[in-house]
Here is the input.
Amino acid sequence: MYNLVQSGKGFQIHFTFLVAELRGRSYQMAKIALILSGCGVYDGSEIYETTLTLLALDRLGAEVQCMAPNVEQANVINHLTGNEMTHSRNVLVESARLARGEIIDLGEANPENYDGVIVPGGFGVAKNLSDYALAGARMKISEKVVNFVTAIHRAKKPVGLICIAPTLAPKLFEGGVRCTVGDDKLTATAINTMGGIHENCTADEIVVDEKRLVVSTPAYMIGERISEVAEGIEKLVDEVLYMTK
Here is the structure.
């Protein structure tokens, strides 16, 4: 699907959006749920990944609704020092920073109102949406996340998972879901242990499980430059929107 990326850098920058035009599809009627897990890579949603996702969705004409669970964070990390702090913060309140206040409680969101869902990465996925950071392959996922995402899936609507979010896939979907966290061996092993099928992938590419309508990209699991992370996220967003038709 993306083997046309052979020309110059200028062509690559606009490639994802050109694909949308070549497909002759309009995404202006699509409404996508964006599940956030706080604000900041170490204890919430990864800020660059979230912003790049919002930008790609907007450029392709989709409507977006940010949402997050109304719960306390597992912990709070000082992003300057990396040290854990003693006070608590609320996931929904912190996620509102990323959403510029335009956000709703995940527990009150109706999956029937959306054409698909995307989950950006960040350690909040592994701490606030699940307990993967503590339990690894024995993890449990927040009931609110399970209820919303599985309802989207049962309705045969697409799911996009970015960075560490694909760790949720084996627990959310039927056995054998294909997904990627790049070439991170430890996380890939956990995905396989939980019943998923991990596929190695570069930061600027995606893995698509067409049977289950699940799209994933490694982003900052392995990405070193925002430009390569952006390319992978743009491709994921385009594929998710394409699957809504």
